[in-house]
Amino acid sequence: MFIDSHCHLDFPEFQARLPEVLANMDAAKVSHALCVSVDLPDFPNVLQLAQDHPNLYASVGVHSDYEDTPEPSLDFLVETALKHPKIVAIGETGLDYYRMGDRSYESMEWQRERFRTHIRASIASQKPLIIHTRSASEDTIRILKEEGAERIGGVMHCFTESFEVARAAMDMGFYISFSGIVTFKSAKDLQETCKQVPLDRMLIETDSPYLAPIPYRGKTNEPAWVAKVGEFIADLKNVPLEELANHTSSNFYQCFQIIRN
User: Fold this and answer.
1) Per-residue model confidence as pLDDT tens digits over 24-49
2) What is the spatial distance between Cα 225 and Cα 84, in angstroms, rounded to a whole number?
């Protein structure tokens, strides 16, 4: 059985077809999925999904790329995470300089401060972090170290960086999660990184509705297709598919401190 460690089932693409999406998960032997929060206005929908479905979990947090949205306070993140048992993580959070454009480095300080708030909430609540990093890996690793994120760990989601970045994250107790991007023909460097990440530090995800893996690229992604990510990585690393599935599922439970039923 596979687990989708990162998806967005509250997004509009799924509202009219959630029963179908859940049935597709079951048919593909995807047992669980983590629905990840990106802002506070939509967070109640994320939480409701987890509360309504035994095989779904939730996180709480505000995405690093959402600028014009209510800012989460440390107290809100901690209290919310501790109040609801189905919330298993803080995030997604991190840094994203990809769309910085002509803006100065200093103008992105709001992202760095938001990131620090999430790390502090993670440590205080003892809920692991879900990290998004894009064009900002040096600052991401630096701030994680400065804030003592090794005390809680978490996952580097939708990983596209070098093995050196992966190793720095793993040294702080983080897992490395690969999405459908790893299946793309253009992702040769990422595939080489994937080969080097040990199975006991690896998760798989869809980040649906985005980044559908081969052979579904260009379509609306969904949690069932995390199985295709798993199949590709098992072949890439030359390990039995069952071994890949068992490792990534066990890692999910360990990373997010979930008691396996």
Assistant:
1) 999 999 999 999 999 999 999 999 99
2) 28
Yes or no: say if 234 and 194 are a contact pair by the CB < 8 Å rule. Answer: no
Q: How confident is the model at residue 100 (pLDDT cuts 50, 70, 90)?
A: confident
Domain residue limits, the chain: 2-255
SS3 at position 96: strand
- Greatest extent of the chain over all pairs of C-alpha atoms, in Å: 50
Contacts of 214 (CB under 8 A, 6+ apart): 180, 183, 184, 185, 228, 232
User: At 34, which amino acid appears?
Assistant: L
- Both structure tokens of 206: 């869809």
Instruction: Output the pTM of the full model.
Output: 0.97
Q: Which two tokens stand for residue 177?
A: 């999660």
CATH architecture of 2-255: Alpha-Beta Barrel (3.20)
Q: Pairing mode, if any, of strands 202-204 and 56-60?
A: unpaired
pLDDT the model gives residue 102: 82
